[in-house]
Amino acid sequence: MKNLITYAALVLCISMMLLGCYSQRTATRQLLKVQTYYPSVLSQLCSDLYPPLVFTKDSITYLKGDMEQEVVFVEVDCDSILKARIGKIVEPVKIPCPPSVYRVDTLVLYKERQMVDRAAIHTLQKQLENATVRLVREERENYILLRVTIILGLYTIVRWVLRIWHIKLP
Question: How many CA atoms lie within 13 A of 136 on its CB side?
Answer without folding.
Answer: 5
